Amino acid sequence: xxxxxxxxxxxxxxxxxxxxxxxxxxxxxxxxxxxxxxxxxxxxxxxxxxxxxxxxxxxxxxxxxxxxxxxxxxxxxxxxxxxxxxxxxxxxxxxxxxxxxxxxxxxxxxxxxxxxxxxxxxxxxxxxxxxxxxxxxxxxxxxxxxxxxxxxxxxxxxxxxxxxxxxxxxxxxxxxxxxxxxxxxxxxxxxxxxxxxxxxxxxxxxxxxxxxxxxxxxxxxxxxxxxxx
Length: 229
Fold this sequence. Notes:
By secondary structure, the chain is α/β, with parallel strands linked by helices.
């Protein structure tokens, strides 16, 4: 059965890969993108709406699709303050989820972060945990939360701290085995691939996908796409 998708955050690291994965999957006949600026690419199956996320009343009727993918996210440094960060990582995703649900979306899939917890001491993890909690309470048939470790990929913006962390971690990747596997850096494309694969399974209920499970999911999807020999 043909499916439709709603995608927010398509200009970001995971979101751009998610858009590519959706367009590469024949089960998705149409993708609606809500974005703050036009996309660099055009496609016959993509409809892009440039919106102001501070005005949900203006985009509410546009937020439609069987599966809603939320890849919005920033850092406190990029946002400029904790208040601005909270708006991007909590207020915007919740408003999009509410709009998607009102338009009949069956599933909501959101990128969170490793260590997300509404009771965490760290502000970043607390906000991520709070948005997970908020969307989990909504009446979607299925809610899927993805908690990747440090993301690997080419960002439009350069993040020095992240670059340094990735450089160090890449040199000791052999140590990320067993219980430490969840902390291994993960390709953004792997997260996106797992999100699309998960959406097509149509699992009901609330599910949290930790980083190591995302790695396994993506690897399995890649094997299924490989031509038989």
